[in-house]
Design goal:
about 425 residues; mainly alpha; 19 helices; disordered C terminus
C-alpha cells in the first residue's frame, strides 16, 4: 500500500478542518448509536427491536435522500450542513435530557432516532458532494472520497469501544451527552473552512423535474446504475448482519455492553483498515477488482463466523468481515462520483444514499424478524451464502475488462468540466 497517496489529500487546509470536525462529531454519533442499541436490547431482549431502532434512524434516508440530493444541487451546501448539524445536536440534547430525567421508554428513543434520520437524509448528500468542493486536485479525489469514508469507519472503531466502557461504568446518558457536546467541534470547523463562492443555478426547476432528470441520468449510465444495484443488494441482504451482534454479545458469549463494544470496534478496525487500503490506490480502475475480492472475503467470513463459539476468534472474524463490508461504500461512492457530471452529482449521491443507508434499515428489520424463527447463527450463515451469490451475479461487471486508465481519463474530462462550470 502506498500511504503517500492516501494522506496526500490532507495538504488541503480546508479538507483537514472538514475531516477533523467530522471525526470528533462522528465519534460522538457512534457512542450514541451504540448506547441506543444496547439500551433497547437490554430493555426488550429482542433482536427485532434492534432492527426497529436501526430502521427508525436510517429509513428516512431511503425516503428522503433523493430530496436531499436535489437540495444539495440547488442550494448552498455550507448552509445545508450547518442546518443538519444544529438539528442533530438538538436531537442529542433532547435524548440526553430525556434519559437523565428517567424517560427511558423505547418509543421516545425511536422517535428521537427518527428525528436524527431525517437530518441525515439531507446531511449525507451535501457532505459527500462537498468533498469535491474542498479538494482542488482531481488526482486526489478518489483518495479524498475514500478517506471521507474511512472517517466513519475510524469513528466506528473508537465510538463503540468508548461507548462500551462508558456504559458499563457510568451509564448511557454520558454517551448521549458526549455526542451533544461533539457537535460544537464540527460547527467551529465548518465556520473556519473557506468554501468556494456559492453560485445559485441560473434557473431552478420544479423538484419533480430535477428528480426525474437525475433518475433518467442514473439509468442511462450503466456504470452508475449497476453500481447502485450492487450496493442496494449487498446492503439489504448482507451488511445487516450487524443487527445480530447484540445477540451474540449477550446470549452467545454471555457478555455485557463492553463485550458488544469490543465486537463493534473490531468490525470498525477492519473497516478502517479497508478504507485506508482503498485510499492508497492511485488508479480508480483497480477498485472494482478489489471490490470483487473483498465481497468474496465478506461472504466466506460470515459463513465461518456463524460457526464460531469462542469470543477472541469471533472478534478476529469481525475484523475480517469489517474489512470486506466497508470497502463497498467507498469504492461504489468513488465510482459514481468520478463518472457523474457536476450538475448531477448531488442527485447521484442522493440515490447512492438511498441504495445503501436506505436499504440497510429495511434489511435490519427483516433480519430481526427472521431471527425470531431461526437462530442468529443460521441467519448469519444465510447472509454469507447470499453474499457469494450476489458477487457471482456481478462477476462480469466487477471483473470486466476496461481500457487502461479509462476511469482516470474520465476523471480528467470531468475535472475540466468542473473548471468550466465553476471558474
Amino acid at each position: 500500500m502506498n500511504f503517500a497517496n492516501a494522506f496526500r489529500v490532507f495538504k488541503s487546509r480546508d479538507y483537514r478542518l472538514f475531516f477533523t470536525g467530522q471525526l470528533i462529531s462522528r465519534i460522538g454519533m457512534w457512542m450514541q448509536r451504540t448506547a441506543v442499541i444496547w439500551v433497547i436490547y437490554t430493555m426488550t431482549n429482542s433482536v427485532l427491536m434492534v432492527g426497529v431502532a436501526t430502521f427508525a434512524e436510517q429509513f428516512p434516508s431511503f425516503l428522503l435522500s433523493p430530496a436531499g440530493g436535489i437540495t444539495a444541487d440547488r442550494y448552498n451546501r455550507y448552509k445545508i450542513l450547518m442546518a443538519t448539524q444544529i438539528i442533530s445536536a438538538l436531537q442529542a440534547v433532547l435524548l440526553t435530557v430525556c434519559y437523565v430525567y428517567g424517560y427511558h421508554s423505547v418509543s421516545i428513543l425511536l422517535l428521537l432516532s427518527l428525528m436524527l434520520g431525517i437530518a441525515n437524509a439531507y446531511d449525507i448528500p451535501a457532505r459527500q458532494a462537498m468533498v469535491n468542493d474542498l479538494v482542488k486536485s482531481n488526482e486526489d479525489l478518489p483518495a479524498a472520497i475514500a478517506m471521507n469514508s474511512s472517517l466513519n469507519n475510524l469513528t466506528r472503531l473508537a465510538g463503540p469501544a468508548l461507548a462500551g466502557i462508558v456504559i458499563a461504568n457510568y451509564g448511557a446518558a454520558i454517551c448521549f451527552g458526549t455526542n451533544a457536546i461533539s457537535f460544537i467541534a464540527v460547527i467551529i470547523c465548518l465556520n473556519m473552512i473557506h468554501f468556494p463562492a456559492y453560485k445559485a443555478p441560473l434557473k431552478r426547476k420544479q423538484p419533480w423535474t430535477d428528480f426525474k432528470e437525475g433518475f433518467d441520468y442514473m439509468k442511462k449510465q450503466p456504470e452508475i446504475s449497476k453500481t447502485l444495484l450492487l450496493c442496494s443488494l449487498v446492503s439489504f441482504f448482507v451488511i445487516t448482519y450487524n443487527t445480530l451482534q447484540p445477540y451474540f454479545a449477550k446470549s452467545v458469549f454471555h457478555g455485557d455492553a463492553a463485550t458488544y463494544g469490543y465486537i463493534t470496534a473490531a468490525t470498525g478496525l477492519g473497516a478502517f483498515t479497508s478504507t485506508l487500503f482503498i485510499a492508497s490506490q492511485k488508479k480508480v480502475s483497480n477498485l472494482k477488482i478489489i471490490l470483487f475480492f473483498n465481497l468474496l472475503l465478506l461472504g466466506a467470513g460470515l459463513i465461518a463466523m456463524s460457526f464460531v463459539k469462542i469470543l477472541p476468534v469471533y472478534i478476529i472474524f469481525c475484523f475480517i468481515c469489517g474489512f470486506g463490508t466497508m470497502s463497498i461504500m467507498p469504492i461504489c461512492n468513488t465510482i459514481i462520483q468520478t463518472v457523474s457530471v457536476v450538475e448531477m452529482r448531488g442527485r447521484v449521491i442522493g440515490f447512492f444514499a438511498m441504495a445503501t443507508l436506505g436499504t440497510l434499515p429495511l434489511g435490519s428489520l427483516i433480519i430481526g424478524w427472521i431471527s425470531k424463527y431461526i437462530s442468529a447463527q443460521h441467519c448469519q450463515l444465510a447472509q454469507g451464502i447470499l453474499c457469494l451469490i450476489i458477487v457471482m451475479f456481478f462477476y462480469k461487471f466487477l471483473k470486466g475488462e476496461k481500457k487502461p486508465d479509462s476511469c482516470e481519463g474520465d476523471l480528467e474530462i470531468q475535472h475540466k468540466k468542473d473548471i468550466i462550470l465553476n471558474p
